């Protein structure tokens, strides 16, 4: 069964701290999506990566294919980064019984000023 | 480019009623996926439509159904509502499916009383 495990479940940080959220996945996943969900519900796609590293502003996502592990880093965290961060495994095929995203449980991040 | 829109944003229904939710994808996107999000279960996949065909279905009862029109707009329907159907319903559009970057709508918050 394809699974995505995320840690930690909850994270509280002080403004300015470096934050890391981890995601481990099983076989059958071709790419890893990092999503951000603010209170109120809307979800924004932050990254989709299948190898290496991507950076966008203060956010960095890395993936290690051999270890089936991905991390999301936030540098110089700010209270506006407070949100739920979700990793999701993308399928190897379009459609079919395994052709959908598989979600982690999410990490609730709270950054205090 | 306009984002994914969902209507209505909020809905209150009574047990036993039925409800129809609508999702308009980003222009050019042919895949629309629907998800249910509850505090206890997190994000769960309902179904995916691609070019007016249901391509994949999650583990939900037959009371949950959907369709996609020729302009890629999609609707989902829940019949005989139960209290447990109270949730945030999100749709996501993409070019061709879950292997591509996903663009989420703001969601419809359904409350069943």
**Poorly predicted ranges of chain A (pLDDT <50, ≥5 residues)?**
none
In which range does the helix fraction of chain B lie?
under 10%
Binned, the helix content of chain A reads under 10%
Coarse shape of chain B: globular
Q: What gap, in angstroms, lies between the N and C termini of chain B?
A: 37 Å
Order of helices and strands of chain B: EEEEEEEEEEE
Mean pLDDT level of chain B:
94
Gross morphology of chain A is globular
**Biggest chain pair contact, residues each?**
A-B, 26 and 28 residues
Kindly list the characteristics that best describe this protein:
heterodimer, A: 113 residues, mainly beta, six-stranded mixed sheet, five-stranded antiparallel sheet, 11 strands, 58% strand, B: 113 residues, seven-stranded mixed sheet, four-stranded antiparallel sheet, globular
Q: How would you describe what is shown here?
A:
- The complex is a heterodimer of chains A (113) and B (113).
- Helices cover 0% and strands 58% of the residues of chain A.
- Chain A contains no helices and eleven strands.
- Chain A has strands spanning 4-7, 10-14, 19-25, 29-37, 43-49, 52-56, 59-64, 69-74, 83-91, 102-103, 107-112.
- In chain A, the strands form two sheets. In chain A, strands 2, 4, 5, 9, 10 and 11 form a six-stranded mixed β-sheet that branches.
- Chain A is globular and about 45 Å long.
- The N and C termini of chain A lie far apart (41 Å).
- By secondary structure, chain B is an all-beta fold.
- In chain B, 0% of the residues lie in helices and 53% in strands.
- Chain A binds chain B through residues 30-31, 33, 35, 41-45, 48, 86, 88, 90-97, 99-101, 103, 105-106, and chain B through 31, 33, 37, 42-45, 48, 50, 55-56, 58, 88, 90, 92, 96-107, 109.
